[in-house]
Amino acid sequence: MADGTRTVPAGRRRGGTVTAAGGRALDARPAAAVAAAFTALQLLLVRPGMGLGWDEIVYVSQVTAHTPAAFFSAPRSRGPSLLAAPVASWSSSTELLRVYLALLSGLGLYLALRAWRGLFPAGVLATAGALFATLWVTLFYGPQAMPNYWVAVGALICTGFFLRARAEPSARSALWGVVAGAALMAWMRPADAVYATLPLFAVALWRRHGRLLLALVGGLAAGGAEWVVEAYAWYGGLGERLHEASRIQGGLGWQIAVDDQLRSLGGRALCRPCTGAFPHPTVTLWWFALPPLAALGLAVAVRAGRTARTLVPLACAATAALPYLFMIGYAAPRFLQPAYALLAIPVADALRHLVRTPAGRWRPVAATLIALGLTGHLAVQYAVLDRTVDRTTRDRRDWARTADALHRLGVRPPCLLTGHEAIPLGYYTGCSSGNTTGHNENTTPAEVGRTARRVPVAAVTLPGAATPGYARDWTPHRIGDLRVLVAPRPPAAGPDRAGGFPGDGAR
């Protein structure tokens, strides 16, 4: 493997810049401007008043005292919960949480780009940040308490510092950057962290970089330790938790989900089952442009004698995307965020090569065509984002209206909701949530019946769905498109002696 990174020293600070080989200053301002614009666009385009989604509710409910904790299934990790805790632990304001996460995600992007200083020109890094930050999926999930964006940030930090540590083995700060990036990924999604770092392990083993191997292992262990401890505390061991996580995700194995990912690009938060028509070709065109542009970036790097710094992020992007393209039977656009972040740097380098000659002069025709293409790309991304935000906001307002209707029926905290969308409806109602079947099974019909003798309980179903056996004698009501069965009012409502209800708790 050609390794042009060894010609790049760690750099020296001079005020707000970093000096690379030859004395050229690498200005931090372009990356900072991109990060600031990313934060501003989130606040402008993804309205802070957009309510919490299903997965966010699971994560946020673990650290807030305002609502009972929702069921925490085997694949999930505590990273998003702890990320939201500085605000969610004392405030129930969704707007405040959104603003906090938007600011934090902008800072994360800036730090991720800075991890690559000295490896690529500042303009390439700023362009890469802009390409990633203006994807609708990045803007949509940046201000949300979700893990995938932060896996992407961790992947950029870990990979950038890995390449810098190879270029300057004596730079201890780069090793700590590898540890931090790997820990952040594992803190958010341990399995994703393993896949994203596989090429880094391969390079470290091949080149016998013992300290880099130790940094990678240490980072993954630090970030994933809590998940492993929970596996033994609640699931009977690591193997059992992995097996349960695989079951909940439909069984991991050879399953082609490329077409599912294409369908999700039109703004579907979760495509399971993934049916229906594909989005308009203009929506998916950028997705098909990524591979040839990445290949061009690699070809440019090979000709320039700096293969490693381009090939390594491309390999990490491929392994990060592998399980979500070929190992699960459903899709969500956020799953591929780490791959998009890693691909953005070689793609930005390829675009720079297309618009400038080796001597640094502009190619007017190519620059004009690429500018027009990027303008169209941004217009499509904004259109998809706008529709997605509008639809999501309406859906979450429907949950709030359903919660108000449940309150009018006497289902008020402390209370328990079961059945269809019990987790989000429970959060908006202020109730505990429970399910006796499915991926979120966390209680039994007998426990639901016992709880109904103490506190208000309601079962939510879709019209025409079978009535749960424990709710056959309950009073039916209609709330919008939902059928709600309310248990007979208990003589004295109150929590059980443990202070909770069936289904409460971290799991």
Can you walk me through this structure?
Residues 487-507 are annotated as: Disordered. The chain crosses the membrane at residues 96-113, 119-142, 149-167, 212-235, 285-304, 311-332, 367-385. Keywords: Membrane, Transmembrane, Transmembrane helix. The two termini are 46 Å apart. The protein has 18 helices and eight strands. The longest helix is centred in the C-terminal third of the chain and has 45 residues, at 364-408. With 507 residues, it is an alpha/beta fold. Mean pLDDT is 91; it is low at 1-25 and 493-499. It has helices at 29-45, 54-61, 79-88, 94-114, 122-133, 136-141, 148-167, 172-188, 190-206, 210-234, 238-248, 258-264, 281-303, 308-326, 337-355, 364-408, 422-429, 445-452; strands at 12-14, 17-19, 25-27, 416-419, 432-434, 457-461, 475-479, 482-486. The strands form two sheets. A five-stranded mixed sheet has the order 5-4-6-8-7. A three-stranded antiparallel sheet has the order 1-2-3. Strand 1 (12-14) and strand 2 (17-19) form a beta hairpin. The chain is globular, with a radius of gyration of 25 Å.
